[in-house]
Amino acid sequence: MFTGLSAFPLTPLANDEVDEGAFAGLVRRLAAAKVDSITALGSTGSYAYLTGGERRRVARLAVENAGDVPVFVGIGALRTSQVLANAEQAEQAGASGLLLAPMTYQPLTEDDVFELFRAVTAQSPLPVIVYDNPGTTHFAFSTELYGRIAELPGIASIEIPGVPDDPEQARERIRDIRSVIPAHVTVGVSGDAKAAAGLAAGCDAWYSVIGGTLPDPALRITRAAQEGRIADALAESERLAPLWRLFTEYGGSLRVIAAVAEQLGLAPRACLPLPILGLGERQRARVAGVLDDLGLGRASGG
Amino acid sequence: MFTGLSAFPLTPLANDEVDEGAFAGLVRRLAAAKVDSITALGSTGSYAYLTGGERRRVARLAVENAGDVPVFVGIGALRTSQVLANAEQAEQAGASGLLLAPMTYQPLTEDDVFELFRAVTAQSPLPVIVYDNPGTTHFAFSTELYGRIAELPGIASIEIPGVPDDPEQARERIRDIRSVIPAHVTVGVSGDAKAAAGLAAGCDAWYSVIGGTLPDPALRITRAAQEGRIADALAESERLAPLWRLFTEYGGSLRVIAAVAEQLGLAPRACLPLPILGLGERQRARVAGVLDDLGLGRASGG
């Protein structure tokens, strides 16, 4: 289940409330595109900004609208007791797995993070994805800590933040990780620009930002890699380079993918939680131009 | 009001609930020591980990137990609407000022942060302290942004994360900041090890971690600096160097000051919010040894 394309939808807001219709529409679009799994309330889904009640409702909506596609739910929070409450809610909503990043305000130690994962896996019957996202959590996992946590019963997958640019170094990095984790734990790559390289290097899954809004090109990359057509996967990723450049220029993927969803009419204008203002007019015009150039300028084009 | 020693008490937890008796005791201790202000729900007060309800209750307890000492309340949160709700609660609790750090999960832009402060100062009648704490927020204020925000009506003070080690460079840094902010906005230093140097360099205030648990040595430093006895302030800070070294070695001030409060019987054992485990046994023994060496090993000694 923790292989292939896991698509991360936005949780669009309108006037500081979850736009449930827009969110359900995004999830139905992903189910129709036949992604391998949907991860609601990932970083792209703004989990860190939402209340417990909002998160419960979003988890339920995701499961209700995903059809046969398994839904994973992000449960991260700053306090362990809140994480455990989110895990219970996700289970009650019908989630097939949990995504957990060690959010920080005070920097955490490796023991702090290990005990957090121990507490969650001890309480919840659901499989857990270890979410290593240092750009938002500012926590740096060591490879050794991957190994300690992956030994916990219930750990299903590790989402790594990328792979080295050099293909041989990328393969070596994945081999290093696999050498410290049990065989049943999959390795998934995030950081969309690195995804094709990660799959080529041996990752089992892609935890994907663009997959949540533009599932078709993400599926082309994923299916090519799964079928051993590595050159095709890398070529499709290279074709999307103008999009990856916007991610870099505009401070990360979130603001860009929100503008994409807004441009395609999949989310209301200014759908990110304040204080995140989102892109300005000129930036949005560039996003629209890139979408058109890539043939992704209409919602039906995925 | 935004000058001198502002003492930041812990918000001790016991079994994942606020230990209201211990918190009230800490606040009464600070009032008795005659600190210049008390900042509840600062980083030391674990504001980021607490629910809205817990924060309302803590703000009320702080005001109720502070006697004549003004109480400032930390209102930071990841979402602007939550910040505004916290500001309103703090006002209702009787706070004399607000402390606001731009918490991040997704990295924020300068415009995002400016608009956050604009929203708060537009809504709340209370004066606001701009809390620049990059070690926890991972947001880096530019001096120019200090200036933009300080022009907003209602901004009262800027809490800077420290000053350069070189005394002349430290004075220059404070002059630089003053050159871009209105005269009524004070500058306060945090980072306890740098506090005497910051006061010597011209800071108006010390936003103090140790002041919340060990007010007496913090007051000795502050009063010496205020009376122009810079050498005495620096000497007292140098005397406390073993404590500053523990802050560095043990990953910041919070775990150490929590162990200090626990050692002095001012907070229950393991008073920090999980997943923060706090110090281990050997580390605690070193903290106790340093307290004894400094003559701070008894609660009455402050």
UniProtKB/TrEMBL annotation, chains A, B:
The lineage of its organism: Bacteria, Bacillati, Actinomycetota, Actinomycetes, Micrococcales. InterPro entries: Aldolase_TIM, DapA-like. The keyword Zinc-finger does not apply. It holds the Pfam family DHDPS. This is Dihydrodipicolinate synthase family protein. It comes from the Bacteria. It comes from Arthrobacter mangrovi. Keywords: Lyase. Belongs to the DapA family.
